[in-house]
Batch of 2 targets.
Target 1
Amino acid sequence: MRLLDLTLSDPATNLALDEALLLEAEATGEPSGVSRRGEALRLWESASYAVIVGAGGSVAYDVNLQACEEEGVPVLRRASGGGTVLLGPGCLCFSLVLRTDRALGLEHVQPSTRYVLDRTLNAIRTLVPDARIEGTSDLAVSGVKFSGSAQQRKRRFFLHHGTLLAGFDLPRLSRYLKPPEREPAYRQGRQHGEFVMNLPATIDELKRRLIVEWEAKANDDPLPMKKVNELISEKYSREEWSRRR
């Protein structure tokens, strides 16, 4: 599996690279059983704060637009599903591009989500022995969340977006995000500050653990920057994409 420990210049470009890696894998990945070419683990951490709405999420319901506009926090939309999140320093984003035939059941959303989350738990188990999967795609300790996930899927490959919090400025969640339009039952109506926690680790330690778990290795293959720029032009830079709902 290819390793990309790489953060690009701004949140929109980072989102576009994740989708470009998926599209490149789907277009060029080799047939089943030949190799794992196209699979990738990308690790990145936004240097600035940005609100990222899921593909079907609602800006009006989920985002405090006044606070975001006053403080220059961009509101963007990703191509994967899931809820609205706040990215920034202390939020490690891990993006996995995986073949749907690498393990049984990965052609379906829930088994593939559980597959990735089980591997993530294995990587951090000694940090948080009591952590478990909650809701459809969260990781939490005693009902307090430290990781969320979402997917974008193609026929042969899927993109799994995940986050791990470590040293994140948690009060900013309530500043820029409203209570979500839809929430998992285990949240029980709690505000962001009561519902979210940081892991007892550094971002670098979390990176190391994920790299070991996925046996990812860096290589010199070129990045799909032509597709990145196309995606930015077509949607990630456009308000009709980010504010469509």
Target 2
Amino acid sequence: MDILVRRNERRLRIVALAVILTAFLPLYSANAERNWAATLYAGQLTDETLGNIFTGNFSMEDAYWVGLGLTRRIYTYRHYFDLEFEGQVNKFFGDQDNWEFDLIGYVRWLLFPWDRYLDTSFAAGAGLSYATSVPEIEVENQGDSAQFLGALSFEFTFALPRIPHWNLVAGIHHRSGAGGTFSGIKSASNGFDIGIRYWF
């Protein structure tokens, strides 16, 4: 079992390296003048699984984070959706004290009927997450965890059409073992974040 887990983790590291290299390939985007973004995040962890937080059945933990994200847009399809990669560095404090490094690939839907008044997008992403120590809240709520896990992220962004390069970001941040793929872990932690993004 340990050999299988190590092989899976090795394969995922290779995929992560390929994702990083892909981010530096030439762009095929309709909006080539602004394909990088920097985001300042702040968030708070919950005590429940991803399914329960979607139903509203959760409480907030005394565990918070602040983070920085660097996003690269690599493709836009006819103003319908973008493909992006984002690297994040997060520092936790409160009842959880560790650093976390995430690499996430996103698909972002761009068209909403009210965009002429409030430019809105929705993104869903999956990737990899590494914590500098086993996160305390994950062990407390789920019984076990690991430093290297999978990551999911869901976010809405909002921008005024006059200043589209400034976005308000609100989302859900999730770490898990992807059904046991990572170290036999199934679920780990979930939290809500909010941030400010600047496209350049």
